[in-house]
Amino acid sequence: MRVEDEEEATEATDNVGARRARQLFIEPKPLPRRRLWPGRLVAIIAMLAIALLLGAVVFSYSSKLYHDWHATRLVQRATALLQEGKLNNAAKIAHELLTRNPDSLPALYVLAETAEKQNLEEAVSWRQQIARVLPNNLDSQLNLASAALRFGKLDVARQALERVPPTDRDRGAFHVVAGWLARAEGNFAEQEEQFAAAVEKEPKNDLYQFNLAALQIHSQDAETRAKARETLQRLSRVADYRPAALRALLNDAITSNDLAAADNFAQQLQMSPEVTFADYLLCLKFYRKLDEKKFRVLLEKVKPFAARDSTELAPLIDWMNQNGLAGDVIKWIEKLPPEHVSSPPAAATIADAYAATKNWSRLKRWTRGGMWGESEYLRFAYQAIATQKSRPRTGGTASGEFESLWQSAVQLTIHQPESELVLARLASKWELEKESEELWWRLSEIPATRREALESLRRLYRAKNETARLYDVLQRLHESTPNEAPITADLARLGINLGQDVERSHQLAKEAYDRAPKEVNCAVTYAFSLSRLGRNSDALSIIQGLPPDQLKDAHAAVYVALLFAEANESEAANDYIAAADDEQIYPEEQQLLDEAKSKFAAASAVPSPVISPARAEITPAPTPSLR
């Protein structure tokens, strides 16, 4: 066979083999192939789904990483702008962060701090949101309370402190903020307790030491006052506290009439790099007391500075008005450019100078025209006072004009507590009883002004001897600061005298004494309560433990005289009757004094027992109990 034929035969054989192989391994299995296809499809779909899921996860994670990175960059940028003092730009970025995450703490912190630096009340709302996100965090609640106190929101501050966990309420920082709340409420005894607790917790904290010393330097206790002076003198050598310590020491020296010490502190304060315009006014107060010549030199030195700055001109004029120099003010302003004095805040203080000198015609001319901006209500108020004082308020045109002007002033202060407070003070100063009473009652509904309003109403009703209204005011004061012992004692004593809720009044008297047993008012009130309950011996033991000189005060002497008269201690009773007699005491106290006099007279009228010449053995009788 030829080679070609062999090759063809071989190729044919190979082709046949290949076909057989294909038939054996491919063609005979069409059915199994159809069975496997759905499974593969499912597998492919599953793989695609996994791939898509993984892609989505990767994309989501990458997106979150980018979002977090971008948010971090925004926080860093906002913080940097805040530190640079670019507050509006920092706030804008923080607002952008909040659109992405309403609970972003860094953004809320930036917004709170920018608002506080700009003295904006919205700082309170930002601090509230932080406290909402971190309800159990001490700093968040204390920062909220501090911001609320700054803007007079006492109820918000109180609620924030109440939310502080009990385990954190014994921290120094908590006691400090609680002390400032007590001060805002007018409870100075509570403030001192809280500041003392803060110092006890952190005795090396100079800020806490200063807070306590600046308060205790006004204490009635000589030892406490001396310790406070020592602390302030130490802090006057510490740079951060030097100006404030010197101010406190200078004030104390002026009050104590220690002129040599005051001169030393005044010189140090004036040489201090941190001296303020208010410090010069404090020094003026001292030099006027020390030396008229030195005072006049300093006053003439301060005037040019004030004349160049309206923000300092008004405080100087106000200081001069308050210190009997209103006449000097009127002479001085004639030399000043009209544009410096015709607009607020200087314009209002000049009006006060005209009022102080009773120059009603000049006051009317001064307030008749012009616009005083935010002080416009004072322009109407002073115009009303000038109208009322220049023509007696007996009806007719003058009365109608006064009412119209005063109501214009009042309308401008609605929803403006700070302006309303100034107007109420002005009404009280000029003895506008009806007008001041209305304003003070409105202000008593506002937490920030409640204490001053109630105290003003208390003085008003006491002066008018409207004891029923006075009792209502004392009740509200007690509700505002239930732990303030002197207020509790006043309420209890008046309640016993008026027969108002007597059982509760006796209970309040004991509460006040338990809280402040060394406070004379509290001790005398509790002794009076015990006496009315028939426990005169217990009452006397309390009185005998008090400093005798403090009991010579006319208001205290009335109750002490009554106790000794009831105990038939005539000599002691007579001493205290003499201390209270011919003094300005309250009507209910006058009734008690008359009661003491009657008992004293009855005891004096009892004839001495006749002594029998015959000596007799007398069996001692038991002393009747007055319990």
Walk me through the topology.
Layout: H1 3-25, H2 30-83, H3 87-100, H4 105-117, H5 122-133, H6 138-150, H7 154-162, H8 172-184, H9 188-201, H10 206-216, H11 222-235, H12 242-255, H13 259-271, H14 277-290, H15 292-307, H16 310-322, H17 326-333, H18 338-341, H19 346-356, H20 360-368, H21 376-390, H22 396-413, H23 417-429, H24 433-443, H25 447-463, H26 467-480, H27 485-498, H28 502-515, H29 520-532, H30 536-543, H31 554-566, H32 570-580, H33 587-605
Helix pairs in contact: 2-3, 2-4, 3-4, 4-5, 5-6, 6-7, 6-8, 7-8, 8-9, 9-10, 10-11, 11-12, 12-13, 12-14, 13-14, 14-15, 15-16, 16-17, 16-19, 17-19, 19-20, 19-21, 20-21, 21-22, 22-23, 23-24, 24-25, 25-26, 26-27, 27-28, 27-29, 28-29, 29-30, 29-31, 30-31, 31-32, 31-33, 32-33
Descriptive report:
By secondary structure, this protein is mainly alpha-helical. The protein is 75% helix and 0% strand. The protein is built from 33 helices and no strands. Mean pLDDT is 84; it is low at 1-14, 16-34 and 608-627.
Query: If you compute it from the alpha carbons, what radius of gyration comes out, rounded to the nearest whole angstrom?
Result: 41 Å
Strand content: under 5%
Helix share of residues?
Answer: over 70%
Number of helices: 33
Average predicted local confidence, pLDDT = 84
SSE class = mainly alpha
Low-confidence stretches: 1-14, 16-34, 608-627
Q: Total strand count, please?
A: 0
Q: Span from first to last CA?
A: 155 Å
Which sheet architecture does the biggest sheet show? none
Mass-distribution shape: globular
